[in-house]
Each structure stands twice: as C-alpha cells, then as structure tokens.
C-alpha cells in the first residue's frame, strides 16, 4: 500500500482559502461550537428570513429528527441566479460542450439562465405544478436539464432526476414511487455519436406508470417523436406563451428540494430526499473550499446530472457560488480518447472533477492522447465515486496534471449531499488512494461489527457520529426505512455502508462497500435489484448476484443463475439474460459474467452464502472457508468447476 506523501505545494499553502492551520482550527471549532460555526456559515446564502437556529437533531429512535436552520426561509433558485444578476449578470453561468466536437459550444449567462428558468417555471405552473409536487426529470446532458431543476426549485416543486441511461421500467418505478404526474424529457439524447430515445422511453414507461399525465418535451436533436395530444407538449411552444417573470417561492429551509433514487442492499431503490437550506449550504460551501473555487474560473465536473455528483457539483454548488460550470454532453472516449483533454484546452478549464473509472479507461489508451494537448490551464484535479487505485492516482497527477495539480479525492454519498472526507488543496498533504481528512462539521468514526468504537490506526466500519447540514432527511414515503437503513446497525450513528481504514496520521482510506451494494464505474447497484430483474425472466428459477474485480469499472457484476427445470443452459440464453437485465434496469446493470448454476450454496436454513459466491467470482477458490454448514457442499464444486471469466 502506497504511503507516499505529496506535500501541499507552497503556492497553494500561501494562497488557498484554507491552509493547514486554518483547517485544524476550523474543524475543531465546527465540532466544539457547531451552532456558532454553522450559523456563521449560513450567511453565505441569501435568506428571505435568516435562521436563528442551526442543527436540531437526534439519531436516537425515541426522538429521531434531523433539522437544520429550520426557522430560516430562502429560495434555492434565487440563490443560484437572482443574487448574482447585479454583480455578474453577463458572466457565463453554464458553458456547454456538445457531444460532437465539430459543433459550437453554448454559453449561457446568469441573466439568460435566470430568464430561461423563470419561463420554465411558468410553464410548470401553467401545467398545474404547485409547491411540493414531484416532477420527474429524464434528460440528456443539455443546459435545459439544469434549467428544469432550477425551475422546480423556483416554484418549490420537488424534482426527481432519473438518469437517462435507465430503462423505461426503471423510470416507471421511480415515477410511481414518488407519485409524479409530470415528466420533463427531451426528444433524444446524444452520447458518443449515438442517439438515446428518451421520449420513446417515457412513452414505454407510461404503461407501468398510469399516474403520468403530462410530458414536457425539450427539442434537443430534432429526431422524430410521436406526440400524444393532450398529454405531451413541446417545451419551446409552451415557453413562448408564458412570461419571463416568475417570483421565487419562499421556502422553509427544511422544505424538500429534490428526491434522487439510489440503490441499497435490499429492496427497490430508495428515494433519497434532500432539503433546501442545509443541502444548498453544504453544496456551496464544499464546492468553494474543496475546489478552492475563485470567481471567473472555468470549473468542470464531468459527471451526469442523473447522479448526485451532477446535482451538487454541476448545478447547485457552482451556481450558488456564481461560478462558471462546464456541462459536457459527450463521453471521454469519443471521437477519441483525447476528448477530455481537448475540452480542457478548448475552454481553459482550471478545475477538473472526474471518476477513477474514466481515468482507468483513458490510461489504458496510453499517454499520447494526453500529451498531445496543452492542459496548462489546469490547477486542481478531483476524483469521486469509488476508491482511486494509486496507479490511476499517479497517472492523473503526473501525466494529466504534470505534477503541478493537487488531487482532491472526495469521499461522499448520495445520502450525504456533498463531500464528507476529502483533502483541501491548501491544507492537506496527499496520499494516493486516501480520501484523507473529514470536512468541517464531520466526525467520522470506525466501529467493529458489534459497534464498539475503534481508536487510533485501525480498520472497521465507517460511521458518522453527528448530523451535518447536507444530510438526507428521509426516504421518500418511508421514514421508517430511513431510520432502519442508516441508524439501527450502530445505534445513535449514521452508518455509511463503507469499510474504512485509518492510518497512524489519521488519514481515512475507504476500502469499499461492506453491504450487498456493488460499485460499478462509480455508480451504485444493488445486488437485490439485479436478482429481481433476473428472476422476472420466465426461464429463471433463482439468481444470486455479487461484485467481482474489474480493471476499468472497479467492480463488475457477476450473476449466478439457476434455470427452471427443463430449461437448457446455452450461450444464446446467456446473452438473452444479460440483455434482459439491460432492458429491465439499464446498461449499467448488465452482468459482466453470468454463470449457470444447477444449485446455489445455501445454509440448512436456506440462506444463500454470498461469501462463497464472492470468492468464486473473484477467482479466489483456494480459500472458500468453512463450507461445512452448507445444506449440500457438492454445489460448491460445481460452481468452482464452471466459473466464468
Ligand atoms: C459510494 C456512494 C459520491 C458521489 C458519487 C457516488 C463510494 C464515493 C468515493 C471515494 C472511495 C468512494 C463509497 C460510497 N465512493 N466516493 N472518493 N473513495 N469510495 O455516490 O452512488 O451514492 O455511492 O461510493 O462506497 O458509499 P453513490
């Protein structure tokens, strides 16, 4: 394990917003006087009624509650737009780079964005959307996606973004779960030169989502779509009929801002609900401090708006800070593997935030694509989504950043709203592969399986001992599930689901999920979800899914499938089942390996022994451990003999 230390460059230590001494002081203060600290920080937002209270929370069952700034009132869209108009109305807010590099980028100023958001908000109002209503957003990476989110925020509607790579079935499930009668989509999306039939997917989703009444369609590609009279309307036609004036709805700090579905270890995806005040403060504050963001800098978060990273670090954080946020429609490998570095040069990007999986995919193509570009604009690099292996870290640092740019390896989750454990570029000496130190207000702890606190250099389960403003507030429609999922494993603490090591210098090293969640290319996939999709197929009797190591994706999906009696295993069926899962959930859920298994290893009480399945998937068959408790130990021999990959 690499313990190389990369000290803070002197120039960063001198000029950064937070240096090492300030980090120590502020972190200590944030824990010793949280109310004072957070009421002071809350002033970075523009409040209609400034809050007089900060955190009001308990993780105990008897008085379980999480509230921040509860007596404050604000509007999130006004914070991201209106308050910047006087000082930087003509500055670019969104800088959009199209999928096809031969096309022109788009630049949208704060004034233009404000006008578009007001119009979109008025279209939503005209369609009967009111404060508290849920609006599903199923969009490609075009500026109108950000406009749609901010339009919801402006009128107090709760947006629920569904990643454009999800299938009609997955979309329908999310529409139904949050009872959303309206969907905002586009005719088609574009990615890597290919078209994604978003509107047609919405049409297909309707069959399983009768609650859906209205579809607002943004014309993105001009590709042909079938419009259903009475249900579908073109955004550009509706927008021409409404005024560009829309007052921002005053919202309580605790009023919901959005729902975002994420996979867990059991059951269907959970609707993670975030607040208006605490969430926005967390997104804005972390964006400013972790990226040391300065007005005028071109900042690029290369995520999709369908994930929390896109919410917090393409839209809300950078716009709350009056920044220039680059939005990229395309993919890192098209037309060639130099695309990201060409975009950096084209727009003089100073801060780049991407995922280890993208870096590994590009690293594999060789340094030539990188060194063919200049990249002299780059000052800071960021990583998110999964542990970054030291080899990819060094490539990012040495080749992409030419040794000049610190890397902030940011650990956080959909549930946390924003960065939790991360270096600060002017304060933290870096260790490749370590997310390093807690952000202000964050108190991480490591506990053993019984919940006993582990001190010093150690390894255990990562919990967070106190609330923070950006914390999720509930699971949509199932507050009990929220409590059960996160606060019962270790009483009185938020359980992250991650394993973690703390070294002798107090650095945190995330080791990966300790639950039945697979991290595929930095995206969370629940094993139960893939299993449910497989058993829906009429030839499948039973399925068990585990993670396996994957060079590019970090983890891949390994599925064991038992067929119904009389069904024949074949290559054709293997392909059919993989395609089936892809169709049920989306391409990211496609099993990388699928093994036909006449039987699964079960205890005598019928519980599948996943530990054994994981070992076989990893190819680590020499240490299967104790199999004596299995109902039928012979099934293991068959699984080992017929391992795929
Ligand atoms: C899980 C959360 C955070 C937004 C994108 C993913 C893993 C995330 C890191 C990191 C090691 C990381 C964790 C976490 N993870 N960032 N820097 N180092 N692991 O959000 O889908 O909610 O997934 O991603 O396992 O629990 P998500």
From TrEMBL:
GO molecular function per UniProt: acetate-CoA ligase activity; AMP binding; ATP binding; metal ion binding
Protein name, per record: Acetyl-coenzyme A synthetase
Top-rank EC class of the record's enzyme: ligase
Catalytic reaction(s) noted: acetate + ATP + CoA = acetyl-CoA + AMP + diphosphate
Protein origin, superkingdom: Bacteria
Task performed by this protein: Catalyzes the conversion of acetate into acetyl-CoA (AcCoA), an essential intermediate at the junction of anabolic and catabolic pathways. AcsA undergoes a two-step reaction. In the first half reaction, AcsA combines acetate with ATP to form acetyl-adenylate (AcAMP) intermediate. In the second half reaction, it can then transfer the acetyl group from AcAMP to the sulfhydryl group of CoA, forming the product AcCoA.
Organism of provenance: Sphingomonas trueperi
Residues bearing PTM N6-acetyllysine: 607
Residues involved in Mg(2+) binding: 535, 537, 540
Entry EC no(s): 6.2.1.1
Mod. after translation: Acetylated. Deacetylation by the SIR2-homolog deacetylase activates the enzyme.
């Amino acid at each position: 394990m690499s313990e190389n230390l990369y000290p803070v460059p002197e120039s960063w230590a001198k000029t950064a917003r937070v240096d090492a001494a300030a980090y120590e002081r502020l972190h200590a203060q944030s824990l010793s006087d949280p109310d004072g600290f957070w009421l002071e920080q809350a002033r970075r937002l523009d409040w209609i009624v400034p809050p007089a209270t900060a955190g009001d929370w308990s993780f105990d069952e008897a008085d379980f509650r999480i509230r921040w700034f509860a007596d404050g009132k604000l509007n999130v869209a006004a914070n991201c737009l209106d308050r910047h108009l006087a000082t930087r109305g003509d500055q670019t807010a969104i800088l959009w780079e199209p999928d096809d590099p031969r096309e022109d980028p788009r630049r949208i100023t704060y004034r233009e964005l404000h006008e578009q958001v007001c119009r979109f908000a008025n279209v939503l109002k005209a369609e009967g959307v009111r404060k508290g209503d849920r609006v599903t957003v199923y969009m490609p990476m075009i500026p109108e996606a950000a406009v749609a989110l901010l339009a919801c925020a402006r009128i107090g509607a709760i947006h629920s973004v569904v990643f454009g790579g999800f299938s009609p079935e997955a979309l329908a499930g999310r529409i139904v779960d949050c009872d959303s009668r309206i969907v905002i989509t586009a005719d088609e999306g574009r990615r890597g030169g290919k078209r994604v039939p978003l509107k047609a997917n919405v049409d297909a989703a309707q069959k399983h989502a009768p609650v859906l009444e209205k579809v607002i369609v943004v014309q993105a590609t001009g590709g042909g779509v079938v419009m259903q009279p009475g249900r579908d309307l073109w955004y550009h036609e509706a927008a021409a009929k409404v005024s560009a004036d829309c007052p921002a709805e005053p919202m309580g700090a605790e009023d919901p801002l959005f729902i975002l579905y994420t996979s867990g270890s059991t059951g269907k995806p959970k609707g993670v609900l975030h607040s208006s005040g605490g969430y926005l403060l967390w997104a804005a504050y972390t964006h400013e401090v972790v990226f040391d963001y300065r007005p005028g800098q071109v900042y690029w978060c290369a995520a999709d708006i369908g994930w929390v990273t896109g919410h917090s670090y393409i839209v809300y954080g950078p716009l709350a800070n009056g920044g220039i946020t680059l939005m990229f429609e395309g993919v890192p490998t098209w037309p060639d593997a130099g695309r990201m570095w060409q975009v950096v040069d084209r727009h003089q990007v100073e801060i780049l935030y991407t995922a280890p999986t993208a870096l590994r995919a590009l690293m594999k193509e060789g340094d030539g694509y990188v060194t063919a570009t200049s990249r002299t604009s780059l000052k800071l690099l960021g990583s998110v989504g999964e542990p970054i292996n030291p080899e990819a870290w060094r490539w990012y640092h040495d080749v992409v950043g030419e040794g000049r740019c610190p890397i902030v390896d940011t650990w956080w989750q959909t549930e946390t709203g924003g960065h939790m454990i991360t270096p600060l570029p002017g304060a933290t000496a870096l260790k490749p592969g370590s997310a390093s130190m807690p952000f202000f207000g964050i108190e991480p702890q490591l506990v053993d399986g019984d919940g006993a606190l582990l001190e010093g250099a150690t390894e255990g389960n990562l919990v967070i001992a106190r609330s923070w403003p950006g914390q999720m507030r509930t699971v949509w429609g199932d507050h009990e599930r929220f409590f059960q999922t996160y606060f019962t494993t270790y009483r009185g603490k938020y359980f992250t689901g991650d394993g973690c090591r703390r070294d002798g210098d107090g650095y945190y090293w995330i080791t990966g999920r300790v639950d039945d969640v697979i991290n595929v290319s930095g995206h969370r996939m629940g094993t139960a979800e893939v299993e449910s999709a497989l058993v829906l197929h009429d030839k499948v009797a039973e399925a068990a899914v585990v993670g396996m190591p994957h060079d590019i994706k970090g983890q891949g999906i390994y599925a064991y499938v038992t067929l119904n009696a009389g069904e024949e295993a074949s290559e054709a069926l293997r392909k059919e089942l993989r395609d089936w899962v892809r169709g049920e959930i989306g391409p990211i859920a496609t099993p990388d390996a699928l093994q036909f298994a006449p039987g699964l290893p079960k205890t005598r009480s019928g519980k599948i022994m996943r530990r054994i399945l994981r070992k076989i998937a990893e190819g680590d068959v020499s240490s299967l451990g104790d199999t004596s408790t299995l109902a039928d130990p012979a099934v293991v021999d068959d699984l080992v003999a017929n391992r795929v990959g």
